[in-house]
């Protein structure tokens, strides 16, 4: 359990400080197969698209174009398919139910004959076929008497209850849950949601809010304290120990309310939920639902279980279904769009792969559909999200490339700005840099963590890249886009880091001069290799390095912003300046925050020319330019 996790307990002194390269298993790239998490036992239906072609050569050519990302499945269906029933619907077949796939006169007979359906649905149909191992996004080729079917698995319906652990909570005790139907009938329910951590969590929270509101559970009015909420959701982060410890102090007052007889439902979501699982219920028995990040789309279903008197733990590795409910977006202008969930890397310090699971790319079709719908709803900026965004598509069959997807999103009409996070220096390709340089709507802005400026430390971290490789990427960006904004993440005091190795990190920062670096002192995390090494750097040393690196970061951030004074920049207006209501807040394409006087009603979502008049460490001030 994390609360009893101490450095001493986690340091069995097995690994000596002299060992240069740690010998833990890596799970990079295709070595980790996310097909394994599509468990046929809990799947009940597949949603499919298909294309019917008449000969093998055409099928091979089309597969090749799909593999190279030159065509989308939906385009192939519209252009080449000889299936009249589905051609006009972008190849959409609909749901194929496992239970009755072999029924006589099946409604899908006209497009998918029995032999095709049985290969897809019956795990015993053909032990050599790989169809049963399909996962959303994959495309497979199956022959029938009608021709050659290219079939894309779009989504899987899973009985999520089979994957959760439940504990029945006896009725009649004082720990009532607010989502009990009797409580719901009596009054309007309100939720509060607090979000810690990264953009992934922010995006997950928006999805969970959407689901709660579709159940008619409304957001608590801003003036009410969270202790007035009937459903309390805490979306947690476990990237560093202090983030994790906040969880328990947050739950405290709500657990007390519950013990005192208030009907309140307590949900702990996010990475601490995944990491702690049932332990959370042991430590806080008042909690109703422990929900790992892979279940963020299923909050509604799982609350139903809670309303039946259960305490539920949903942390089993799970493939992530496409959204059925609309997220409730925090902004009307800027939206997050997940393109790949999870991470297959094994950075020796990082807990994310064990809390967010293996990589799962969404199909390009569903990503583009979501982006187009956002534009139709008036959104102007989209940020594509992935823990390692450059890994996008390597888990799909056929594989896809992130640079191709980025270009496709960048070409969406009326979408003003596209951003993306997070790039991994090991995988980031020149094609990505080129796509940004060549597409005017993709912001010249990059977030590329470097973690350390020393090759030995990078090797021990298991990052898979050198300092030289990192600098080469920066050089290419600056050559093609000299003004590009570049931000990064770094860790100081990684086990074994010497003063000299730390000074290499400062040197790298001097060389690049970042617009901002998220700095962190290394925090040992449970179930990560580096936490067990016996060469931990002392807390005093880590704090000292953190302060020194923060000073350098502030200096560079200030210098970088000061060069903007006197220039006129296009600012996408996002909100009012909460500290000064006569001002609005927006960003330059590099990502710099800019404040200027203006009316938010008039300007929100607009691109405004602003002359920059002053700069500070993390923001700029300006005035509307008279052109
Ligand atoms: N893949 C994303 C990325 O590269 O930014 C997300 C990783 S994590 C959510 C964000 C950052 O947290 C990492 O880049 C790393 O600098 C920092 N981090 C991760 N584990 C850490 C640890 N154990 N101690 C301190 N910082 C950590
Ligand atoms: Fe993945 Fe964490 Fe490394 S999210 S890329 S294991 S920093």
Features of the shown structure:
627 residues, alpha/beta, Rossmann fold, Chitinase A, domain 3, pyruvate-formate lyase- activating enzyme, 4 domains, 7-stranded mixed beta sheet, 5-stranded mixed β-barrel, 19 helices, 24 strands, 31% helix, globular, disordered N terminus, binds S-adenosylmethionine, binds FE3-S4 cluster, 4 iron, 4 sulfur cluster binding
Report on this structure.
The chain has 627 residues and is an alpha/beta fold. It has 4 domains: 180 residues, Methylthiotransferase, N-terminal domain (Rossmann fold); 120 residues, Chitinase A, domain 3 (Roll), CATH 3.10.50; 229 residues, tm_1862 like domain (pyruvate-formate lyase- activating enzyme), CATH 3.80.30; 57 residues, Nucleic acid-binding proteins (OB fold (Dihydrolipoamide Acetyltransferase, E2P)). It is 31% helix and 22% strand. The chain contains 19 helices and 24 strands. The strands form 6 sheets. It has a 7-stranded mixed sheet with strand order 5-11-10-9-8-6-7, with helices on both faces. Strands 20-21-22-24-23 form a 5-stranded mixed beta barrel. The protein is globular, with a radius of gyration of 26 Å. Bound molecules: S-adenosylmethionine and FE3-S4 cluster. S-adenosylmethionine binds next to strand 18. FE3-S4 cluster binds next to helix 11. Keywords: 4Fe-4S, Iron, Iron-sulfur, Isomerase, Metal-binding, Rotamase, S-adenosyl-L-methionine.
CATH fold-level label of the largest domain: pyruvate-formate lyase- activating enzyme
Q: pLDDT under 50 segments (min length 5)?
A: 1-30, 127-132
Question: Structural class of the helices, strands and pairings?
Answer: alpha/beta
CATH superfamily of the largest domain: tm_1862 like domain
Provide the domain count.
4
CATH top-level class of the largest domain:
Alpha Beta
Count of discrete alpha- or pi-helical segments spanning 4 or more residues: 19
Q: How confident is the prediction overall: mean pLDDT?
A: 88
Biggest sheet, strands in spatial order? 5-11-10-9-8-6-7
What kind of sheet is the major sheet?
7 strands, mixed
Gap from first CA to last CA: 61 Å
Q: How many strand elements?
A: 24
Pfam families: Radical_SAM, TRAM, UPF0004
Cofactor: [4Fe-4S] cluster
GO biological process, one term: tRNA methylthiolation
GO molecular function: 4 iron, 4 sulfur cluster binding; metal ion binding; methylthiotransferase activity; peptidyl-prolyl cis-trans isomerase activity
């Amino acid at each position: 359990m994390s609360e009893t996790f101490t450095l001493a307990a986690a340091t069995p002194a097995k690994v000596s400080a002299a060992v240069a390269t740690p010998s833990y298993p890596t799970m990079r790239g295709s070595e980790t197969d996310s097909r394994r998490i599509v468990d046929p036992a809990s799947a009940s239906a597949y949603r499919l698209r298909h294309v019917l072609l008449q000969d093998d050569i055409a099928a091979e050519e089309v597969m090749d174009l799909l593999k190279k990302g030159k065509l989308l499945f939906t385009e192939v269906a519209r252009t080449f398919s000889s299936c009249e029933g589905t051609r006009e619907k972008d190849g959409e077949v609909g749901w194929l139910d496992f239970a009755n796939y072999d029924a006589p006169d099946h409604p899908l007979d006209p497009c998918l004959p029995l032999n095709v359906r049985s290969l897809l649905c019956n795990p015993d149909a053909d032990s050599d076929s790989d169809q049963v191992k399909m996962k959303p996004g994959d495309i497979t080729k199956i022959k029938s008497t009608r021709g050659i079917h290219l079939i894309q698995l779009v989504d899987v319906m899973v009985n999520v209850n089979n994957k959760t652990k439940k504990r029945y909570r006896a009725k009649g005790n004082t720990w009532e849950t607010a989502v009990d139907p009797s409580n719901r009938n009596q009054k309007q329910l309100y939720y509060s949601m607090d979000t810690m951590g990264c953009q992934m969590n922010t995006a997950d929270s928006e999805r969970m809010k959407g689901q709660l509101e579709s159940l008619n559970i409304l957001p608590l009015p801003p003036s009410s304290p969270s202790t007035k909420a009937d459903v309390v959701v805490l979306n947690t982060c476990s990237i560093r120990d202090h983030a994790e410890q906040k969880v328990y102090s947050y739950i405290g007052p709500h657990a007390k309310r519950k013990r005192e007889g208030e009907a309140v439902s307590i949900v702990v979501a996010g990475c601490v939920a995944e990491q702690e699982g049932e332990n959370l219920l042991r430590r806080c028995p008042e909690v109703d639902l422990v929900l790992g990040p892979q279940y963020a789309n299923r909050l509604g279903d799982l609350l139903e279980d809670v309303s039946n008197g259960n305490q539920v733990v949903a942390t089993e590795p799970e493939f992530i279904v496409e959204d059925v409910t609309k997220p409730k977006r925090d902004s009307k202008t800027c939206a997050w769009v997940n393109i790949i969930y999870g991470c297959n890397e094994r950075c020796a310090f990082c807990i994310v792969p064990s809390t967010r699971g293996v990589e799962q790319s969404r199909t390009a079709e569903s990503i583009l559909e979501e982006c187009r719908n956002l534009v139709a709803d008036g959104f102007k900026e989209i940020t594509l999200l992935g823990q390692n965004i450059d890994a996008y598509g390597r888990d799909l069959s056929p594989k896809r490339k992130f640079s191709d997807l980025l270009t496709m999103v960048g070409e969406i009409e009326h979408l003003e700005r596209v951003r993306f996070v997070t790039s991994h220096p090991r995988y980031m390709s020149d094609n990505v840099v080129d796509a940004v340089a060549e597409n005017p709507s993709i912001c010249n802005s990059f977030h590329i963590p470097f973690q350390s400026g020393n090759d030995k430390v990078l090797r021990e971290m298991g990052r898979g890249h050198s300092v030289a490789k990192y600098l080469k990427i920066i050089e290419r960006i600056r050559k093609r886009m000299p003004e590009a904004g570049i931000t990064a993440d770094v860790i100081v005091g990684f086990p074994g880091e010497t003063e000299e190795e730390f000074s290499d990190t400062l040197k790298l920062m001097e060389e690049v001069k970042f617009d901002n670096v998220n700095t962190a002192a290394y925090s040992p995390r449970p179930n990560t290799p580096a936490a067990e090494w016996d060469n931990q750097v002392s807390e005093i040393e880590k704090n000292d390095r953190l302060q020194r690196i923060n000073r350098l970061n502030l200096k560079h951030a200030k210098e970088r912003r000061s060069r903007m004074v006197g220039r006129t920049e296009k600012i996408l207006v996002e909100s009012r300046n909460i500290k000064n209501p006569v001002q609005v807040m927006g960003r330059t394409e590099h990502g710099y925050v800019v404040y200027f006087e203006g009316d938010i009603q008039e300007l929100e979502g607009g691109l405004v020319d602003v002359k920059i008049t002053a700069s500070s460490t993390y923001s700029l001030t300006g005035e509307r330019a008279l052109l």
